[in-house]
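I'm stuck. Protein, please.
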Amino acid sequence: MAEEDYGAFVDWTQMGDLAKSSGPTKVDCKDLKAFKQMARQGYWAKNHKLRAQVYQQLIKAIPCRTVTPDAAVYRDIVGNAAATKKPSSHIPLPEFVDGSPLPRYCLKAEAVASAHRVANCVAGQFPDISHCPSLPAVTSLLLHFSADEAQCFELVSRMLSCNEPGKRLLDQTFLAHESGCMTFGDLANKYCSAAHRMIVASAQDVLDVYSDWQRWVLGDLPFGHVVRVLDIYLVEGYKVLFRVAIALLKFYRKHKAEAQGAAEPDSNRVRDEIQAFVRGIGASVTPEKLLEKAFSIRMLSRKEITLLQLTNERSLQQKGITVKQKRRNVQLALNPDTFSSEIVSAKEMRDIWSWIPERFALCQPQLLFTTSTHGCSLNRFYAHCEGYEPTLLLIRTTDGDVCGAFLSTDWEERKRGGNKLSFFGTGECFVFRLKPEMERYEWVVIRHPELASSSKTPDPDDAAPPEGQQADGNGLEQPERPAGDLSPFLSARHFNLNSKNTSMFMAGNFDSIIVGGGDGNALYIDSELNHGRAGRCTTFDNPLLCAESFQVALLEVWGFQDAMAP
């Protein structure tokens, strides 16, 4: 097939250096692992024809459901006279794209009509799709590397029909898309904490900002950048989008740090600023620099993304959120007129809320226990807190220090150890202090991934922690969590931990509660909830959260109440 057949829709005057084909002219490789290496290195990035041939090969190799529409179906439906019809760009894109525009991506003006025709034909052949904002961008991109509209339709159809277990390419329901946004928020909080803090400070609704994350990659990136992402995305799948979006957030944060001035929190302004930055990223960041940043993120694996996505989907289903609806954001849940704590202000609680996993963003704080009302009794503490998962512990000392912990697991779990003090919980636990200054200390393995290793060593990016791995520290038992429970990807059993002291999250018995272990405890509170000790511990690698020996002035425990419940 002649090279120009793959460029029939391209406006070569806009392609810059990509209009000059160079480098290798063929790929003699059918091994996907080798393809992965070549994709990351940009083996076919300088040859338009070769890139088109590789895309055809990769997409045609995707396992699809039995009945998948192909090019012949498109020709039967649209007909060879399609080019003489009224331009399809005058026909709205399918409703399920949720208003996402079709990026031009250096296409000819008349090619926009072709992309509209393809997208609308897809909508007719895939009636089960209810939400797919990425379809316009993917259609526009694949049109670049197709000989005709029918071929582009077949490529898009195969991506939508992928039925390979554990592999996803495009979200096709609101549930999948929304859980993906929540998952991105979780990953940004974990792997891009400085940028996440900046977003929290500058936007009223963080999840609203993160709802654009896929559009940053598939829609806003310049063609030269997004096509390099597509090279790898077609080989490695959905996880590539998360990595690139996190890298974009890191670069945006650096860009904002260099800018002057501050403004009032405004989610729409932040969304517009990120979009403008991504669209103009070519002025400061090359495609290869973007990919280098994306693949330098350690410990982020397909397994973590998948488990987070499933957890967030389950959370949305439990709340009855499976179709698009107006979301109640965390600021409404933390209305200063209704929120009341004797330890923290509404703003401070909002800051804490920005640290918690995204699946609790639809929850509002529910006061479960406070020493000012329920008294200083550990038995009453347990009685009021058991049955709630997760919980937030807040402490104000008589010196005026404020600290606490996010605890992922029900305190009733302590009973599994019998009378023996045993640690439980997951790596989503963290400790923090608010006064004299605000700081969070996560599980040490998150910040120092070298402390954990994986059983799958050939590819660190895809490393899946082994099943059944359990670590106990200093002779303390660590009970197994039931399958499918909270944050399975951060259970210690999934990691080969180099130290027994790095997974001691929370513990309690009749005479004390403990948060953090290994060479000390982050927090220790006695049975009268009156005296406590703070220390450095291995699990959170934290400094003293307050005075080493302190007296409790007030202690509160907060639960997470479904804000969508009647």
Observations:
- The radius of gyration is 26 Å.
- Confidence is low (pLDDT under 50) at residues 326-332, 454-489.
